[in-house]
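User: Show me an example of a complex going from sequences to structure tokens.

Assistant: Sure. Here are the input components:
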Amino acid sequence: MKIGRGELFIGRAFLTILMLITVLPFISIFLTALHPSGTVPRGFEWPADPQWGNFLEAFKVANMTALLSSSLYIVAAVVPVSLIISTMAAFAIGLLRIPGSKFLFPLFVFGLTLPFGGIIVPLYYLERWMGIYNTRLAIVLPLIGLYMPFAVFWMRAHFISMPIEITEAARIDGASAWDLFRRIHLPLARAPLSSLGILMSVWTWNQFLLALVLVEDPTRRTMAGALGAFQGHYATNVPLLCAGTILILVPTLVVFVLFQRQIITALLQGSIKG
Amino acid sequence: MLPVCSKQSRLNIYGNWKSKESGCVTMPEFSKLSSLMKKTSDKVRVPNKVSRRFSLGGKDRRETIIGGLFVTPALVMYAIFVLVPLVLSVYYSFFRWNGITPMTWVGLKNYRTVFEVPDLLATIFNAFKLVLFFSIIPVGLGLIVASVIQRVGSGRFGSITRTVLFLPQVIPLVAAGIIWGWLLALPGLINEVLTAVGLESFTRAWLGDFTWALPSVGMIGVWVLLGFCTVLLSTGITKIDPALYESARIDGASWWNEFLSITVPLLKYEIGVCLTVTVINALSAFDIVYVSTAGGPGNSTAVPGVKIYILAFTEQRIGLASALAVLLMILVLVVVLPLQRLNREEE
């Protein structure tokens, strides 16, 4: 393909500038985080005396060890359970003859557009009544419920895209519905399952509203929820706030770099199928 | 349609008979089917409609029971933590309630209040203003970026661009709010840049300014969502036949010609998807707004999500908060459903 040299230069310059604009905010808070704690530095300036200790201080004052374990606990509880129950439901809705499947699937899909804000108030009172308010379960249980529409939708799309011959051949060999699930379809679903798992992990880590409303104690929240509380305490101490923010977003960036391809495809396919 | 029978010999998908009970078709149908099968290769797929009709015979009921058991856990979690609160939202919206004392039935009064109190109605207008920033700009700019990548970003350069632009999408929105809260502050980066290029008179505390706070919050949304739209549209472009671009270029088409006559029309479906996702993001925005401005200054950046939170958890007006919540859910449905239908038609 022939493209003029001038155009190539202008196009690439445009993209480079755009990349710079995207990355500058990260660099700015990184530089700010290196300034002496408690000062108000300028927005973009290499500090005279970089305070690497700020990260350590933020780690301590934010009680980061407790936060990390709390977030990991929540992710470890939400993701496997959501994966298992949504996959089973999607399998049944997609491939088994079950009563009411015609209305079950739209019922789940209906939840796809639901803003969390729409149900957060009753959720608060429901959880007080159930006695799980201000525990980690207060985040875990509703998140599992809230992930069901997307997860069921996603896994069903996978199951119905599998060649029907696989199912039929197994049935002919006398496989029961359970065998079909456990022996045939589950092993074949590894790729969509892992994408879904990564997506739900990131979403859980980043979940803010549920943590803010349903858990008072920041050390029992998700990372993003804890960051909200941290901001409340250290809003005036900009370098420390920036250091804390970096500590909390670094894990998401690491996960992204490691699983980049899966995350991007999962997000895209997820929205396209939606 | 093949009639279903039981306890006869059965047919596997390649047209061989075996003598065992379960999935089968009657003989006349079979002969048609098998001649059809012979014409095509082994790899051919039986259309779903046909093969779904294979019956499991006596296993049917067991399968129904297992299927029911499979669906139950997901359904129960969904029902308890999504559907029940949804119904409760609607229920609460008909009462005046402070969360402690008994509820008082007020009928539709809370809904009337939402439409009559300017500060509440403004949240809905603000949500639509955010649509401009969260949807229109990212999709428009994303289209331009994606087509530039298509033209000049072959190989590594293009994939690095996509990855970098995507970064803001993976960090917590709360972090995005905090980062930009600092960038847009009086001593922040934005004002530094403005000063550096001689626009010092233009500097201000962006998020504290009645006129500029909402557009500033909107720009955070552009930063977060541009990468998502770019990558999605860019993936769409790779599916367009390159021959189209090649012949356009042989004819000496400029980037702009290509953009208008090939890229945009052929990406209608992807554009629809982008719009749907970003519009949902805009209307139900909470994290970014709450963290960067909490709805202020005054009421200038209040969106429904934030207002619901304030009404319910600081002002203890549960009924009113719920009415706004119900309106928000209806709003999202009303805006998104037509977009979805558009997508289907384009497909």
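The lines above are the inputs; the final block is the predicted structure for all two components together. Chain A touches chain B through 106 residues (CB under 8 Å).
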